[in-house]
Amino acid sequence: MPQVTALSPSPGQIDLFICGSDGGVYTSQSTNGGQTWIEWAHIGGVFSPGAPVTALSPSSGQIDLFICGSDGGVYTSQSTDRGRTWKQWTDIGRRGAPRLPP
Question: Is 17 left (phi over 0), alpha (psi -120 to 50) or beta?
Answer without folding.
Answer: beta
